[in-house]
Write a structure and sequence with these properties.
The N and C termini lie far apart (56 Å). Helix content is 30%, strand content 22%. The chain is α+β, with helices and mostly antiparallel strands. The strands form 3 sheets. Strands 4-3-5-6-7-8-9-10 form an 8-stranded mixed sheet, with helices on both faces. A 5-stranded mixed sheet has the order 12-11-13-15-14, sandwiched between helices. A two-stranded antiparallel ribbon has the order 1-2. Helix 2 packs antiparallel against helix 3 and helix 5 packs across helix 8. The structure holds 2,5-anhydro-1,6-di-O-phosphono-D-glucitol (AHG) and manganese (II) ion (3 copies). One of its GO terms (cellular component) is cytosol.
Length: 341
């Protein structure tokens, strides 16, 4: 009998999620509805990003966030879009955003059993130059959602290791608009068909190459790297006899650098350094969701000495060093870091 997912070119994200949901008889479709609202938030953000130049949405909003980042107008607009659309799904009890100092606790009568952490607009420094940017999200199950009364309760319940992620993904606002996500059984990529307004399946079951030929890091920080990281990067540029050097590709939007690494292989790095002892990227809505996706695609994600998915968060905006990508490349990096730690 047909699986409902015949090889047609219009397997929409909603249909795909419904199909996935059938594999979990206990689920009542809450995650499907939550992902529908996340999908809408990404489509609205996509539309704002693409008209920003015309609608005068470029430039700074005037404020800053708890991480110390200056907020671009599109950071604020995408943050509002994610909050209002996701809360309206009535499937979440807690929302954590890069642009919100405290967790948002949803009213009891509007609450669901999930928690979501999101980076509503990733790569903000690239907005005004029309370089690819994106959004990142991670979804957790909150079994005691009804016991949440304060923002402290909310933080405690959503601060789960990345291993506990129920679903994670990112949207990428590039020459095409992609949405890549995983529910814990593989990674699947969708492309927005503007004529339908639907994300359609274009990259079923993405697998990252075991080893790549590209490294991705902000070389401008090399003065401040730990010695072991500097030695690893040096080994890629000056390989042993007979091996060719890796190429460097660095966009400065995590979503774009990670997406290229996922499809082509290689390693994406945002190391800790003397200025940022835990690196720059935040665990809950950048490091963990991307690590989840990388592992689901057969890759690896490490701080240099431990698996990013094993970290138990202690604050909702905490940072983590990030090395993720092809399994063998990340193992090589770890061998440098572990030999000196
Ligand atoms: P965000 O725009 O959400 O604050 O994230 C920016 C991050 C990430 O997208 C990227 O990998 C990194 O900042 C780039 O940092 P540098 O400009 O220091 O290389
Ligand atoms: Mn930021
Ligand atoms: Mn970001
Ligand atoms: Mn951001």
């Amino acid at each position: 009998p047909p699986t409902g997912l015949e090889e047609t070119d219009s397997v929409t994200l909603t249909r795909f999620v419904l199909h996935e949901q059938r594999k979990h008889p206990e689920s009542q479709g809450d995650l499907t509805l939550l992902l529908t609202s996340v999908q809408l938030a990404c489509k609205v953000t996509d539309s704002c990003v693409r008209k920003a130049g015309i609608a005068k949405l470029y430039g700074l909003a005037g404020g800053g966030n708890v991480s110390g980042d200056l907020q671009q107008k599109l950071d604020v607009i995408s943050n509002e879009t994610f909050k209002v659309n996701i809360e309206s799904s009535q499937k979440v009890a807690v929302m954590v955003s890069e642009e919100e100092e405290l967790p948002i606790v949803v009213e009891k009568h509007n609450r669901g059993k999930y928690g979501i952490a999101f980076d509503p607009l990733d790569g903000s420094s690239n907005i005004d130059s029309n370089v690819t940017i994106g959004s990142i999200f991670s979804i957790f199950h909150l079994p005691d959602a009804e016991d949440i009364h304060t923002t402290d309760d909310a933080a405690r319940q959503i601060m789960q290791p990345g291993r506990k992620i129920v679903a994670a993904g990112y949207a990428m606002y590039g020459s095409a608009t992609n949405l890549v996500l995983s529910f814990g059984n593989g990674v699947h990529g969708f492309t927005l068909d503007p004529s339908l307004g639907e994300f359609v399946l274009t990259h079923p079951n993405i697998r990252i190459p075991r080893r790549g030929k590209i490294y991705s890091v902000n070389e401008g920080n090399c003065k401040n790297w730990d010695k072991s990281v500097a030695q690893y990067i040096h080994s890629l540029k000056f390989p042993s006899e007979g091996k060719s050097p890796y190429s460097l590709r660095y966009i400065g939007s995590m979503v774009a650098d990670v997406h290229r690494t996922l499809l082509y292989g290689g390693i994406f790095c945002y190391p800790a350094d003397k200025k940022n002892p835990n690196g720059k990227l935040r665990l809950l809505y950048e490091g963990a969701p991307m690590a989840f996706i990388m592992e689901q695609a057969g890759g690896k994600a490490s701080t240099g000495t431990e698996n990013i998915l094993d970290i138990q968060p202690h604050s909702i905006h905490q940072r983590t060093p990030v090395f993720m990508g092809s399994y063998e490349d990340v193992c090589d990096l770890e061998s440098f870091c572990k030999s000196t730690s």
